[in-house]
């Protein structure tokens, strides 16, 4: 039986929509972008759109993009929507992300924008949109409360690519061999991220880490573990080398690319973060104890007004 011309056009359109996407092989299958329902009306096939889509607006630094991705991932799962990210997204070059990708750069442009302007505060009402909507979700989204319920799945998505992970492991192995540490299990590694760079002298309301804070953070771990080695990455390495405590073993890591530095300190047991989302994700992905600057925001600043410690920092993390 031959299709009519109109039915052929519908079939072609559906096929073209399907070809836009590369579907993941993750163990929990993603919801298709468009579920179709067929009904007969005068022998014509009627296509009804059933499920909406979320395109995260991935922008700013790597830490910011991880918040944007993780929140969008969780919302898409909760609402049974399709999560779509660009095929050439930077985070795909770093992590083994396994969701639906699109090679069409203009696919999401017509989607309605839902933007979080609170940044480091949880805003539940932000997500009050229909699961049949097509949404661009973006800006801050810097609260663990958006995605904690999918912790295991997100950690699986944010597995470093093999070449990055291998470089990190080899870097640590060489350090331990040089220090004549025979067993990885015999030593506690603490990754330290010291954010300076554009935050030095900036009026955006951040309190950058001080020498006193680094002393408190280092003491926190040396009092708890017998043999500790601190691995430091920073965008202000000269300052860090001068101000890290000199009475403890320290290694300074600079592998030329942020993702290699990040993977190296994530391979540690625990974390000292200072300020910024890059350090936040180092603490999260490491999975051990995390200490952070408890007075991260300057008094009276805009950052103080939009920062909720309860929403931004995990309850078990320690502010010093």
TrEMBL record:
GO terms for biological process: carbohydrate metabolic process. Coiled coil: none annotated. It holds the Pfam family Glyco_transf_11. Its main location: Golgi. It is an enzyme of class 2 (transferase). One of its GO terms (cellular component) is Golgi cisterna membrane. It is a single-pass type II membrane protein. It comes from the Eukaryota. GO terms for molecular function: galactoside 2-alpha-L-fucosyltransferase activity. Its EC number is 2.4.1.-. Keywords: Glycoprotein, Glycosyltransferase, Golgi apparatus, Signal-anchor, Transferase, Transmembrane. Pathway: Protein modification; protein glycosylation. It is found in: Golgi apparatus, Golgi stack membrane. InterPro entries: Glyco_trans_11. Belongs to the glycosyltransferase 11 family. This is L-Fucosyltransferase.
